[in-house]
């Protein structure tokens, strides 16, 4: 399934924040895929383990950190945050604005300065409900409202 020769696994380097290859039996580790790797299978596996996404976050007073670059403190209720997000969602679905355009001025996340772009991430890097929703999307799809400890989100998978 992964495309690696027998005995090899993929590990994550904490110091370099990138994957490396480790042979369980010989204890050898290498940065490049080991000899005998099926590169096509490896690339297909890696494509399924990483996603790229943009999001629009609306925080509320019960968010784990109810403050943002836009507002400090945030006092709106969760219900109000959901209504705000529904309004943005409607504009996106009607083609009036893109998620990126709205995120750049309305998102309570610091990613607003990148139009909501979170870049590439792997499983285990985001809050579970956010990760589950993102990996379930196809590239170009927009999620429904997703709740996390940070607030409520709309997510667009971009890669």
Task: Provide a descriptive summary of the structure in words.
This protein has 159 residues and is of the alpha+beta class. The chain has helices at 39-49, 78-93, 99-106, 128-136, and strands at 8-13, 18-23, 29-30, 50-58, 117-122, 146-148, 151-157. It is elongated. The model has no long low-confidence stretch (mean pLDDT 94). One of its GO terms (biological process) is positive regulation of transcription initiation by RNA polymerase II. It catalyses: [protein]-peptidylproline (omega=180) = [protein]-peptidylproline (omega=0). One of its GO terms (molecular function) is peptidyl-prolyl cis-trans isomerase activity.
**Proper CATH architecture of the largest domain:** Roll
Radius of gyration, taken over Cα atoms and rounded to an integer in Å = 19 Å
* N- and C-termini, Cα separation: 21 Å
Number of domains: 2
Can you count the beta strands?
7
Give me the secondary-structure category. Answer: alpha+beta
- The number of distinct helices, counting runs of at least 4 residues, comes to 4
Uncertain runs are none
EC number: 5.2.1.8
Keywords: Isomerase, Rotamase
Catalytic activity: [protein]-peptidylproline (omega=180) = [protein]-peptidylproline (omega=0)
Domain PpiC: 48-159
List the helices and strands and how they pair.
Elements: E1 8-13, E2 18-23, E3 29-30, H1 39-49, E4 50-58, H2 78-93, H3 99-106, E5 117-122, H4 128-136, E6 146-148, E7 151-157
Antiparallel strand pairs: 1-2, 2-3, 4-5, 4-7, 6-7
């Amino acid at each position: 399934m992964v495309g690696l020769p027998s005995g090899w696994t993929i590990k994550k380097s904490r110091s370099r924040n990138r994957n490396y290859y480790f042979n369980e039996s010989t204890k050898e580790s290498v940065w490049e895929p080991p000899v005998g790797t099926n590169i096509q299978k490896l690339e297909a596996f890696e494509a399924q383990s990483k996603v790229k996404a943009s999001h629009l976050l609306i925080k509320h007073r019960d968010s784990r950190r109810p403050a943002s670059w836009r507002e400090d403190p945030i006092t709106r209720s969760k219900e109000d945050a959901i209504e705000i997000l529904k309004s943005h969602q409607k504009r996106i679905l009607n083609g009036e604005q893109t998620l990126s355009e709205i995120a750049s001025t309305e998102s309570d996340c610091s990613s607003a300065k990148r139009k909501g772009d979170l870049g590439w991430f792997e499983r285990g890097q985001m809050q579970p409900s956010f990760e589950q929703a993102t990996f379930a999307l196809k590239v170009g799809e927009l999620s429904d409202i997703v709740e996390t400890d940070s607030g409520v989100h709309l997510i667009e998978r971009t890669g």
